[in-house]
Amino acid sequence: MPKDTGIGASTKRREDIRFLTGKGAFTDDMTLHAQAHAVMVRSTVAHGRIVKIDTARAAAMPGVLAIFTGEDFAAVGGNPAGWLINSRDGTPMREPKRPVLAHGKVRHVGDNYAAIIAETYEQGRDAAQVLADDTQIDELPAVIDMKAAIADPSNRVHDEIPDNLCFDWGWIEDNRAAVDAAMKAAPHVVTLELTNNRLVPNAMEPRASIGEYNTGTGDYKLTTTSQNPHLTRLLISAFVMGIPENKLTVVAPDVGGGFGSKIYHYGEEALVLAAAKKLGRPVRWTAERSESFLSDAHGRDHVTKIEMGCTKEGDILAIRTETLANVGAYLSNFSTATPTFLHGTLMSGPYKVPHVYVNVKTVFTNTAPVDAYRGAGRPEATYSIERVVDMMARELGLDPFEVRRRNLLTPDQFPYQSPVGLMYDTGNYQATLDKAIELGDVAGFGARVAASAAKGRLRGMGLSTWIEACGIAPSNLVGVLGSRVGLYDAATVRVNATGNISVMVGAHSHGQGHETVFAQIVADKLGIPDSSVEIVHGDTSKIPFGMGSYGSRSLAVCGSAMDRAMDKIIAKGKKIAAHMLEAAEGDITFEDGKFSVAGTDKAKTFGEIAFSAYVPHNYPLETLEPGLEETAFYDPANFTYPAGAYICEVEVDPDTGRVEIARFTCADDFGNVMNPMVVEGQVHGGVGQGIGQALLENTTYDENGQLLTGSFMDYAMPRADDVPFFAVDHSCSTPCTHNPLGVKGCGEAGAIGSPPAVINAVIDALHRGGITHVKHIDMPVSPNRVWQAINA
Amino acid sequence: MTKVTMTVNGKSVSAEAEGRTLLSSYLREGLGLTGTHIGCDTSQCGSCVVHVDGLAVKSCSVLAMDAAGADVRTIEGMANADGSLGVMQQAFQDHHGLQCGFCTPGMVMAASALLAENPTPTEAEVRHGLEGNICRCTGYHNIVKAVLAASGQDMPAVAAE
């Protein structure tokens, strides 16, 4: 029987009311008194030396209040990379300065080298055009292709970096020789070269920022489209502008999707703060979609060679990969972690593999920065593994389901120390595979193949068994691995005098539904109605220092902090109850919202305790403080390891190469589920993005570094008629063993597990149709690519 | 600047507009009706869909002056008279048809116009009808469910899962 409230209930979202009535408060919805507008002036060439920026004409135009160029920020710091990665030889990565505005050189189309501040947006646009005309940039040859970037050291994105390499990383370097030996000794080796296509995150709300400066107090305020306001404040304070943290408030209000692209601090945020101070007026900047395409951090963009050594029976013996990962022109904040510790550590997948070695070279190019996008490194790892496992089954004439069963870890093998550094705590991969087979009606597949054939279509089925590491992350561990920040989270539970509760959390909700789900968890534990709990997030002046939302971490890390803070509330409540009931503290129990003396009918309700905490008459003040408010910081002991099995069925039109998704089935293990409706919604969205990557989306630069896919007219976003209904199940649950809620995280799963299932299905369809010469097609499998492959 | 007058959500309203001012900007900046969102600059995303004289229109592709005298309805005018959610709004909440909420106003406006034209659409007709509205969060699953539910039809078994 489904629950109506509390943990496990599909409670409808309270935040929906404002979004459905036009009362959401997104950054660009805010208009402040005397607000001025910032317009960026962006490079139209991929690589060039800035010779002259003549601001005179633009500055004299109507409404123009100020013009900023790179020169204005030459003395301030740069936007840093969050992870320091060492190369195989122990040398640290190359970390070029990332300025607020380009200075000296522009390094990608869209690199902003100046900003106009004007009374109106339109006046700013007019002046930006004039300033662009009055700027001389001498174009240099663009570095676009990663292999060419390394091969031709004469052409440099950063003058001081001779080979365009950020680092050459080996994981785990000490295992390299053993992996090479195992590969050499393997009876069969499967080799696959593939591209993980570059994607533009395209959250529907373009980035926007408002800077404010109070000349009376010296306080700054930044309202911005951020997934993690405290991290943005820290970066601006400690690295970029030197504004003390106590003088800077960062607010991330309603944020219209992030998918990773709004984790990072961008130069426009520093710019509006500097402009606000200079003018003594609020300054707002909002990206046009075209700017988003050019300047948001992109995702993926790996070129990988993967080899898998195995027995003729399909036992995996060794995996070895070599990857070129594009970081673009500058290091975005997590760009160095994504292709390394979020990728290499997952390269044994859900399988028992004795030997694994991963090599990643990250390359600077004259393209937009590349960073974490939904899944971040783990989709790239999963795609490589699941494609090569499928290829192995095909080469050896084995059933792809059976090959996976043969290699999947079994429940008795947990905890499992992987050869690439992770300790999987728990899982039951057979159970999710069985559930997917049942829910996906694999038994009925043959009949569907025949039905498709009758329409002239080739039907295929593709499987993906995936795992990820999320709930990012144990600070001790990531510190050893090069992270410059801790990755705990924090929550403050404030019980108000009248018994209702405000919970201030470090996680940020930009679609995930925290305001509803976190309230369910609090209400459940404290035995009060959901409606008595308010979740406060996104404002550094209100919430404790948390690390925000990404990496499917909000519930596992911040939810755990909330749980710990409630433990402290209950403990304090017991002290208060003991005093009020004149009993020993050890005799007080808390259940169903009541503090009782064990074995008696003496009790106080939660509300009575709360009131007493704030009206502390007759309190023994030497042993009991007034008030009922507790904060907890939670630093996880391990990552969490969601896993699942996805089955995709496609129909391919052999005449046109068009691929249609006919069925998509997901069986996931997310541990304990707090709100099934929300969890299923996260899976739907992730799968939608994964299908987008597999079928439609591709970010294409030409050889001069011009972005050919710079709008929704050229970049194929998934639309309602590109996807079917999805069958989603999360009943096979093995709760996380090391966090108090037993939760694992569900935000990225769909985007991780789905792309290989789609591509495996397409290859399967072609082979079933007798087109056996096609071994692999790179994503996106557009009609053109499929037709070319069929007719090659 | 010229004063432009139209009817918005049943009330006669006026605001200044330049010749180049789009209806989307007029609503947001001129009238403060910020429920209508701007998600792109090529009339592709549909976040700005409103009703003009009963038809779904991308308000970023209409000049404010061209809408002078028109009867415009925005997301702010979709609730019932007592303030409760209208049928389509309620269906979106009931079926979790929104996550971040940014595309939602345009989606609700497009979907309600779709049902006005075709009160009992098939799943395929709903998907085709919403092709001009991009959502990055939901994979469209629950949006399509919500629109079918708002039409009062029994949902396909798979959609009910």
What distinguishing features does this structure have?
heterodimer, A: 792 residues, alpha+beta, 7-stranded mixed beta sheet, 5-stranded mixed beta sheet, 28 strands, globular, B: 161 residues, 5 helices, 5 strands, disordered C terminus
Summarize the structure.
Chain A has 792 residues and is of the alpha+beta class. Helix content of chain A is 28%, strand content 22%.
Account of the protein in words:
The complex is a heterodimer of chains A (792) and B (161). By secondary structure, chain A is of the alpha+beta class. In chain A, the strands form seven sheets. Chain A has a seven-stranded mixed sheet with strand order 3-5-1-12-9-10-11, sandwiched between helices. In chain A, a hairpin with a 5-residue loop joins strand 13 and strand 14. With 161 residues, chain B is α+β, with helices and mostly antiparallel strands. Chain B is 29% helix and 16% strand. In chain B, a hairpin with a 2-residue loop joins strand 1 and strand 2. In chain B, helix 2 (87-94) crosses helix 5 (141-150). The longest helix of chain B has 14 residues, at 104-117. The interface between A and B is large, with 60 and 62 residues.
How is this fold's topology laid out?
The complex is a heterodimer of chains A (792) and B (161).
Chain A: H1 16-20, E1 36-42, E2 48-53, H2 56-59, E3 64-69, E4 105-106, E5 112-118, H3 121-133, E6 135-139, H4 146-151, E7 165-171, H5 176-185, E8 188-196, E9 208-214, E10 219-224, H6 229-240, E11 248-251, H7 267-279, E12 283-286, H8 289-295, E13 302-310, E14 316-328, E15 355-364, H9 378-396, H10 400-407, E16 416-417, E17 423-424, H11 429-439, H12 445-454, E18 458-467, H13 475-480, E19 489-495, E20 501-505, H14 514-526, E21 533-536, H15 554-581, E22 588-591, E23 594-597, E24 603-605, H16 606-614, E25 629-634, E26 643-652, E27 659-669, H17 676-696, E28 727-729, H18 749-768, H19 783-790
Parallel strand pairs in A: 1-12, 10-11, 14-15, 20-21, 27-28
Antiparallel strand pairs in A: 1-5, 2-4, 2-6, 3-5, 7-15, 8-13, 9-10, 9-12, 13-14, 16-17, 18-26, 19-20, 19-25, 22-23, 23-24, 26-27
Helix pairs in contact in A: 9-18, 14-15, 15-16, 17-18
Chain B: E1 2-8, E2 11-17, H1 23-30, E3 49-52, E4 55-58, E5 71-73, H2 87-94, H3 104-117, H4 123-129, H5 141-150
Parallel strand pairs in B: 1-5
Antiparallel strand pairs in B: 1-2, 3-4, 3-5
